[in-house]
Amino acid sequence: MNKQNIDSLVKKDVTPSVHSGHRERVKNKFLVEGLDHFEPHSVLELLLYFAIPLKDTNSIGHILLRKFGSLSGVFDAPYEELVKIDGVGKSAATLIKLIPQICRRYQENLDQDKTRIFSYDEAGKLLTNKFVGRSDEVVVLMLLDSRSRMIYCEVVNEGSATTANIYIKKIVRLAVQYNAVYAILSHNHPSGNCMPSKQDLNTTQWIHEALQTVEVNLIDHVIVSGNDFISIAKSGIMPETFDVKMDTE
Questions:
Q1: DSSP for 125-143, written as a single string
Q2: What is the β-pairing status of strands 150-158 and 138-144?
Q3: Do residues 218 and 211 lie in contact, with contact meaning Cβ atoms separated by under 8 Å?
């Protein structure tokens, strides 16, 4: 090989790629502008930088969106389905599943100083945040003191709210432990319909009666689906049960 050919190869090797610095430009754009002007695939592209160091994550972002339909669909996709996508390994799938959980913890942290519950709608909005990133049905209990201040709000059961016999003792025990005056029950419908079933209403009555034995008033049962929720108390579906209004109403 002559010197001219060697020089040509060296020049070819050191010529900057058209993609050189692309990741840094995308990161800098985010730092300056935030995500508001990012297309969904670009959001995924940026996120996957931190789990996939060498591959083209832009194309993986497109593939994920085609497979799962939307940005939220990607984040809600089962881990087992994510790892089936070409280019998405265990680390990337774990990172994707981490995002909704971080969002929920972030929102809960922001809400922690909002200790007073002023209305059924406010309780519903706070409880809705407890279900962000959850694909399975869970039951959340909120406890309030005599001034409608929130003193407890956590998941008390993972599984159908209709299997109340599994966790009813825990609800009563927590109500006594925190010296609660009011309680609000909540669970999610992953299927996408907020309307309470007959079983939901029966369970609501059952828990209401159990709490009455320790002089705690169940003042609502909030059913959540995605960003929507329904307050059984406010809806008037069970007037014979929810006849106690919050002090601030």
A1: HHHHGGGTT--S-EEEEEE
A2: antiparallel
A3: yes
First-to-last C-alpha distance (Å) of the chain: 88
Q: Could you tell me the domains of the chain?
A: 3-107 (no CATH), 116-235 (3.40.140.10)
How far is Cα 113 from Cα 30, in angstroms, rounded to an integer?
Answer: 29
Model pLDDT for residues 48-102, shown as the tens digit of each residue: 999 999 889 999 999 999 999 999 999 999 999 999 999 999 999 999 999 999 9
Radius of gyration of the chain from Cα atoms?
Answer: 25
Over residues 75-85, the pLDDT tens digits come to 999 999 999 99
Cα dihedral 118, 120, 122, 126, rounded to 10, equals: 120
Q: Length of the chain in residues, anyone? A: 249
The single residue listed with the structure tokens 């995002």 is 99
Closest Cα partner for 203 from 162, 240, 143, 231? 162
pLDDT per residue over 112-155, tens digit each? 655 678 788 888 988 998 988 888 889 999 999 988 889 999 99
> What is the spatial distance between Cα 74 and Cα 141, in angstroms, rounded to a whole number?
29
Amino acid present at 126: L
Helix axes 22-33, 40-48, angle to 10 degrees: 120
Tell me if 236 sits within 8 A of 221, measured CB to CB.
Answer: no
Structure tokens at 248: 């601030």
Inter-CA distances, 98 with 25, 46, 141, 189, Å: 25, 15, 24, 21
Neighbouring C-beta atoms of residue 22, cutoff 10 Å? 13
**Residue 75: which of 57, 52, 48, 50 has the closest Cα?**
48
